[in-house]
Specification:
This protein is an alpha+beta fold. It folds into 2 domains: about 40-165, Galactose-binding domain-like (Jelly Rolls, Sandwich); about 175-385, Rossmann fold (3-Layer(aba) Sandwich), CATH 3.40.50.1110. The chain has 9 helices and 19 strands. The protein has helices spanning about 1-25, 180-185, 195-200, 210-215, 245, 275-280, 290-310, 330-345, 365-380, and strands at about 40, 50-55, 60, 65, 70, 80, 85-90, 95-100, 105-110, 115-120, 120-130, 135-140, 150-155, 160-165, 175-180, 220-225, 270, 315-325, 350-355. Strands 1, 4, 7, 9, 10, 12 and 14 form a 7-stranded antiparallel β-sheet that branches. β9 (about 105-110) and β10 form a beta hairpin. α4 (about 210-215) packs across α9 and α7 packs parallel to α8 (about 330-345). The protein is globular, with a radius of gyration of 24 Å. It comes from Paracoccus kondratievae. Pfam families: CE2_N (PF17996). GO terms for molecular function: carboxylic ester hydrolase activity. InterPro entries: CE2_N, CtCE2-like_dom, PCW_deacetylase/CE, SGNH_hydro_sf. This is Lipase.
Length: about 400
């Protein structure tokens, strides 16, 4: 009886393993991001039409509310490089145009809840026609990461339209400072092996954890982030003179002399800058011998960086965001930074994340990871939901 029972168990286990192996190979792989990205893509059931045309003459500019780090461009436009630059305006009429000199970026343009996306529009206007008569709100947002500056020239209407005052700003602004995870690098992808074009197609900063948190709190958001960047060091020790400490004050990282346009102070500042510091091996030529040595410098450096941001944004709450998967040294350094901020009387919260799945391109956070990160931040900010 015992030997027969054993044979049945062994046969059953062997069958289970065989089924699992077959399922592994039969299961379809996640779809690749669609490339190339269409230059113009209208959402389904959109009533209006959209096309790219040469810059038009005899149009009137619409007053707009602008959010994001930028420098002045020609004729009242905006030069931008940091992620998530966005603009909102209102008008009355059946057509509207958006002006670009941009061979780099992807944009989503929303009118009354219907959207059109454009990719690398170049030196052209996006002409949107066939809008139902009446009053409208239009929002344009850069959803890709830019390797250099580009121009958003603003919104324009013809003589048949009428400009209206832009909407009042949200009661609060949250600034998110970080690296590719904050950018939303390839966050809509469902696989890790991606080409450069697929990464471009899969990145949507507006769907990253920062905008999710801001929308949940009824706030606006500004994102100062860059792939590969860190505070004391960048990923792999690259560009040691271009860490976030050096680039943060700049309106345009690629044009250090560009003057920054005035911007609204932030009410909450979320800083996630440790992953690239601890996420790659130290080079023998770097000044740290190991991660413990690096952690001793990183904690005070993070506290100093956070204090400078708090001084620039009086009364702002600082949130230190640590990706705990990068090791105990990162976590220890974040706790040290939080303690130093406490000693200096700077209001702060510390959020150390559980290990995300990182199923998107090149092991970046996926859509579900960004939702998890947003939930963790919202839990830390729950007592601020009414502005407290």
């Amino acid at each position: 009886m015992r030997s027969g029972w054993t044979r049945e168990v062994v046969i059953g286990l062997a069958c289970s393993v065989l089924i699992a192996i077959v399922a592994l190979y039969v299961r379809p792989c996640p779809a690749r991001p669609v490339t190339p990205v269409p230059q113009i893509a209208l959402a389904e059931n959109t009533a209006f039409s959209a096309r790219l045309v040469p810059w038009q003459q005899n149009l009137g500019p619409l007053p707009a509310a602008i959010t994001g780090r930028a420098a002045p461009g020609p004729d009242g436009g905006y030069r931008h490089e940091w992620p998530a630059f966005h603009a909102v305006a209102r008008f009355e009429g059946t057509s509207v145009s958006l002006r670009f000199d941009d061979s780099l970026s992807r944009w989503r343009v929303d009118i009354d809840g219907s959207a059109v996306e454009i990719s690398r529009p170049g030196l052209r206007d996006l002409l949107i026609e066939g809008i139902k008569p009446g009053r409208h709100e239009i929002r344009a947002e850069k959803i890709s990461e830019s390797p250099g500056p580009a121009l958003f020239g603003g919104f324009f209407i013809n003589d048949a339209g009428r400009d209206l005052a832009p909407p009042e700003p949200a009661p609060r602004l949250i600034e998110f400072i970080g690296d590719s995870d904050t950018v939303g690098f390839a966050n809509t992808a469902e696989r890790r092996d991606c080409t450069e074009d697929e990464i471009y197609a899969a990145t949507d900063t507006s769907r990253s954890f920062g905008p999710q948190v801001a929308r949940a709190l009824g706030a606006d958001y500004r994102i100062i982030a860059r792939s590969g960047i860190g505070l004391l060091r960048n990923y792999g020790g690259a560009d040691p003179e271009r860490t976030m400490g050096q680039l943060y004050p700049l309106a345009l990282p690629a044009d250090p002399q560009a003057p920054a346009l005035p911007q609204r102070p932030a009410d909450i500042i979320v800083i996630g800058l440790g992953s690239n510091v601890f996420g790659s091996p130290l080079d023998p030529q770097e000044r740290w011998t190991d991660n413990s040595d690096l952690a001793r410098d990183f904690g005070p450096a993070l506290a100093d960086f956070a204090r400078a941001r708090a001084q620039e944004n009086p009364g702002a709450l600082v949130v230190l965001l640590g990706f705990g998967e990068y090791g105990p040294e990162l976590v220890e350094a974040h706790h040290r930074a939080a303690a130093l901020l406490d000693e200096r009387g700077i209001a702060n919260r510390l959020v150390v994340l559980d290990k995300p799945q990182r199923n998107a391109c090149l092991w970046h956070p996926s859509a579900s990871d960004h939702a998890m990160i947003a939930e963790a931040l919202l839990a830390a900010l729950k007592d601020t939901a009414q502005g407290g």
